[in-house]
Amino acid sequence: NFAVTLPQKSADELGELATSIETLATDLNYLKRERNEFLASISHELRTPLTYIKGYADILLKQNPPTDEREKYLAIIVTEINRLNLLIQDLFELAKIDKNSFVIKKEKIDLSIFLKRLERKLTPAINEKNMIFNVHNPSSLNLHADPIRLEQILLNLLDNAIKYSKTGGLVELKVWKEKKTIHFLIRDNGKGVPEKDIPYIFNRFYRVEKSRKRSLGGTGLGLSIVQELVHAHGAEITLKSQEQIGTEFEIIFKENEK
Ligand code: ADP
């Protein structure tokens, strides 16, 4: 009789191993599917502006339209080229993040100076839409973070707050310290995110109302980059939003460095 009776412990271990292999296989399949979907989205997103560019360039070449129409077509071509540019920049950013080949260079940031500079940078966009920008600037508060990345995170969220708000709207930026955490709140009273879209809002290429967003020129990659950069700092980002009322993003940094 060659039947092998496994000691109880190894049988349990084998069972556990089998379960982890199964989980791993499911994870790998999921990652493969996600990667394929991502590549499909990239090709689609790159192809759309190229189709416009080719279409209008062809008309310009072959039909020699009158000057006013020519100008209109050239303007569309330039817009679509800018869009491709933004898309490629964002894709490079994500590729760097995915390869873990970007480094967070943390340093002590004096938030009061930092926020003043940020406010100045946003003034033209705020003024252009006749909006109000309230910055609650804390005095003497420092944060250990990568200043370039922190600026990128906040500019992205504030740009969205402006972009998805009506003329004359209000954008707020609040920063405060709790016991061991530093909080950033970015709030607008713009169009908000529908409840059903909230769970997907940080996904790559995710946009509410796909066709409308084209005219606003986004890539749908901004928030996924923001989330990766926040996580790279060991921080968390959450979102609360209500349609037609507004949107609020909160970022929480753990302040454990001296
Ligand atoms: P996009 O380049 O389209 O702005 P993002 O990743 O930055 O892409 O944002 C994803 C989507 O989330 C946007 O298309 C928009 O529908 C929604 N969104 C982001 N920020 C806001 C906001 N402050 N108010 C309303 N909707 C927003």
From TrEMBL:
GO terms for molecular function: ATP binding; phosphorelay sensor kinase activity. Its EC number is 2.7.13.3. Residues 41-257 form the Histidine kinase domain. The keyword NAD does not apply. One of its GO terms (cellular component) is plasma membrane. It comes from the Bacteria. Residues 1-33 form the HAMP domain. It is found in: Cell membrane. It is a multi-pass membrane protein. This is histidine kinase. The chain holds residues 200 to 457 of 457 of the full protein.
